[in-house]
Amino acid sequence: MTTPLIETRDLTRTFTVGSGNYGPRHVLTAVSDVNLCLQESETLGIAGESGCGKSTLARLLMGLLRPSAGEVRFKGTTLAAMSSHELSAFRQSVQIVFQDPYSSLNPRMRIGEIIGEPLLIHKLAKGNSLRERVAEIMDQVGLSPDHAARYPHEFSGGQRQRIGIARALAVNPQVVIADEPVSALDLSIQAQIINLLLELKRRHTLSFVFIAHDLSVVRHISDRIAIMYLGKIVESGSRDAVFSAFLHPYTESLLSAVPQINQSGRHPRVRLTGDVPSPLVRQPGCPFSSRCPHSRELCRQALPPLEEKEPGHHAACHFSRELYR
What we know:
The chain has helices spanning about 55-60, 85-95, 110-120, 125-140, 155-170, 185-205, 215-220, 240-245, 250-255, 295-300, 320-325; strands at about 5-20, 25-35, 35-40, 45, 70-75, 75-80, 95, 175-180, 205-210, 225-230, 230-240, 305-310, 315. The protein is of the alpha/beta class. The longest helix is centred in the middle third of the chain and has 18 residues, at about 185-205.
């Protein structure tokens, strides 16, 4: 088996939070014991409701945050063991497209400077070659090279996200981490950006980590999918396996909430009850047990491991084989 481009091993990230200077301090676990891998030319979709740790995971994969425990590996080498030269090569190979196209661009820089800045930092181009490369990548993402001297505020939200994509692609990366790149855009613009990402993946042989809470988008663009809940991966597998033969009650509830035109073929609506556990309190058992309609005493006492239930299909549920035969 080939070495994954990106791999995580028991990846965990905690934050210390408190109320004011004299209030009690608590530990918030944003990402907990996550094991993932991304293969070459693959799109790994990461889905889950807001606050489940998706964006924190993206920043850990990028090396923008240091893990509290566990590790991130790039081509078999852990980021913590990389030299400064290796880290520079990693940062060129792995780029990110941020969620908000309004706050992720420097309003004081022209877009030609924004797109060209990574090329200058990595010393890949300068002078005429820099201008030619910026014009080339702007054309690839559907922007006119004649607009390179304009500022971000002169563009719409969809155009700004194209600028962010162009900036990520400027240094010819191997991996692009897209952190909810269409959630702030209108529906028609979302379709344009998703089709652009698919075309760029084909043209440049890219690998994607695509993060979103919209399962319809994740299904359209991903090869494999991981479902997150309260910082943990509760199910992972191929796109068809997760959507057509899910093995976790949380995945079932998410899929049942997806609007569909053909009502006869949709999943029965699962209405969750109970309270969402606080990420500030580590409780025994399955983190979904307080809301799961199939919860039993074992679920509240023992944490189910993420284990392979079917070939290539993992789930963290004590009773998945019984529930989803």
